From TrEMBL:
Pathways involved: Secondary metabolite metabolism; quinolate metabolism
A GO BP entry: secondary metabolic process
Annotated source species: Microterricola viridarii
One Pfam family cited in the UniProt record for this chain: Amidohydro_2
Species classification: Bacteria, Bacillati, Actinomycetota, Actinomycetes, Micrococcales
The protein's Enzyme Commission number: 4.1.1.45
Domain Amidohydrolase-related as annotated: residue spans: 4-329
Keyword Zinc carried by entry: yes
Keywords annotated in UniProt: Decarboxylase, Lyase, Metal-binding, Zinc
Subunit annotation: Monomer.
Protein name: 2-amino-3-carboxymuconate-6-semialdehyde decarboxylase
Catalytic class of the enzyme: lyase
Length: 348
C-alpha cells in the first residue's frame, strides 16, 4: 500500500485577469515562458518560477508513481489567499482559484484531492465558500496561519474553525506572509527561519488563546512543516505556563495537554527531527507531507519514514497513510481508485 501526501500545492496554467475580474490592485499574473515553464509575477517583479508539475496532472501522476504515492492533497499556493484585500475581493479570487483547482485535479479525481482557499478575513464568506467547495468536490480547506495581525485565536477565525468542526471539514494550516527585514532577505531566511516561527506562533495562539478549549474535539486541523519549531520548544512553553501564570496561563490546561488536538506533516527532512515529533505528539499525529512540487520539499516523498528505523512497521503505516485517511475522513478506498491496490483497507 502506497503513501498519502497531505501537503502539495498547485498553480493553474492560466487564470483570468484579476484586475478586470476583481478590481484594480497588485495581483499575481503568470508569465508563460514555455509549455513546461512559467513565472508567477507580482506587477513587474518575479515572484516564483514554476513548472508543469504545478498544473499538469500527467506530470504529477508520473512523479507520484515514481515515489509510491497513491493520493495527493492538492492545496492552493498561499500567494493567492488575498487576505490583504477586501472580503468581497477575496471571495471572487477564492472562487476563481477554487474552480481552477477542480480542473487541475479533474484528470485523476481519485488520486488528486483538492483543498480550497477561503476569504478568511470575512468569516461568514469563508464559511459560505467552504460549504460551496465541499459541495463541488473539494475535500477540505487550506488556510494561512494569520490574517494581518489577527492570529488563529481571533474571534472571526475561531468562528470559521467552529464551522469546520461542525461540518467535518479538515483544515490544513500553512505559514505565509512572513515578516521581512534586511536580515531576513539573505539566504532565504524568511523561509528557513520565518516559516517555522510563524507555524510555532500559530499553534501557541490556538493553545494560549483558548481555541482548543472552545472548538469541539471534532475539529481536524493539521499544520505544515512539522508544526514549525513547536515540538522543540514545547518544554519552554510548558515551563512559562507554570512559572508565569499571570501572563501565560490563559488556557484551561497546560500546553502539553493539547498535543492530541492537532496533527503535523512529516516534511522535516531528518529522522532525528521526526523522532522528536513522534515523541512529542505521538505517531498517530504525524502524516506524510512533501511540499511538492516546490524545491524546498521532500523527494522521494516519504523517504524520511523509511530512514527512521526507530518507527515500528505499524507506526510507518500510520504515518504513511492511516493517519491521513482519518484526517480526510476517508473510511475506505476501492482498489480501482488508486495506482496501488488498496483492496480491503479499512480504518480501525
Amino acid at each position: 500500500m502506497g503513501t498519502i501526501d497531505i501537503h502539495t500545492h498547485y498553480v493553474p496554467s492560466a487564470w483570468p485577469d484579476l484586475s478586470a475580474q476583481v478590481g484594480p490592485g497588485l495581483w499575481p499574473t503568470l508569465r508563460v515562458d514555455s509549455e513546461r515553464e512559467a513565472m508567477i509575477m507580482l506587477g513587474d517583479a518575479e515572484f516564483r518560477q514554476v513548472g508543469a508539475d504545478c498544473w499538469d496532472a500527467e506530470v504529477r501522476l508520473a512523479d507520484m508513481d515514481a515515489d509510491g504515492v497513491d493520493l495527493q492533497v492538492v492545496s492552493p499556493t498561499p500567494l493567492f489567499f488575498s487576505y490583504d484585500k477586501s472580503g468581497d475581493e477575496a471571495v471572487k479570487v477564492a472562487r476563481i482559484f477554487n474552480d481552477l483547482a477542480l480542473e487541475v485535479c479533474a484528470p485523476a479525481p481519485h488520486r488528486l484531492l483538492p483543498f480550497a482557499q477561503v476569504p478568511l478575513q470575512d468569516p461568514d464568506a469563508a464559511c459560505a465558500e467552504a460549504d460551496r467547495c465541499m459541495a463541488n468536490g473539494h475535500l477540505g480547506v487550506e488556510i494561512g496561519n494569520h490574517v494581518g495581525d489577527r492570529d488563529l485565536d481571533h474571534e472571526g477565525i475561531v468562528t470559521f474553525l467552529q464551522h469546520c468542526a461542525e461540518r467535518g471539514i479538515p483544515v490544513f494550516v500553512h505559514p505565509w506572509d512572513m515578516p521581512t527585514s534586511p536580515r531576513l532577505e539573505r539566504w532565504m531566511a524568511r523561509w528557513l527561519t520565518g516559516m517555522p516561527a510563524e507555524t510555532h506562533l500559530s499553534i501557541i495562539s490556538m493553545i494560549l488563546g483558548g481555541v482548543f478549549d472552545r472548538v469541539p474535539d471534532s475539529l481536524r486541523i493539521a499544520f505544515a512543516h512539522g508544526g514549525g519549531s513547536f515540538a522543540f520548544w514545547l518544554g519552554r512553553l510548558e515551563n512559562a505556563w507554570h512559572r508565569r501564570p499571570d501572563v501565560i496561563a490563559t488556557s484551561a490546561l497546560p500546553p502539553s495537554a493539547y498535543t492530541n488536538r492537532f496533527s503535523v506533516d512529516s516534511v522535516v527532512f531528518e529522522p532525528t527531527a521526526l523522532r522528536l515529533l513522534v515523541d512529542t505528539l505521538g505517531a498517530e499525529r504525524v502524516m506524510v507531507g512533501s511540499d511538492y512540487p516546490y524545491p524546498l520539499g521532500e523527494r522521494p516523498v516519504g523517504s524520511i519514514i523509511e530512514r527512521s528505523d526507530f518507527l515500528s512497521d505499524d507506526e510507518k503505516t500510520a504515518i504513511r497513510r492511516g493517519n491521513a485517511l482519518r484526517f480526510l475522513a476517508l473510511d475506505s478506498l476501492p482498489a480501482s481508485a488508486t495506482f496501488h491496490s488498496l483492496e480491503g483497507l479499512r480504518l480501525s
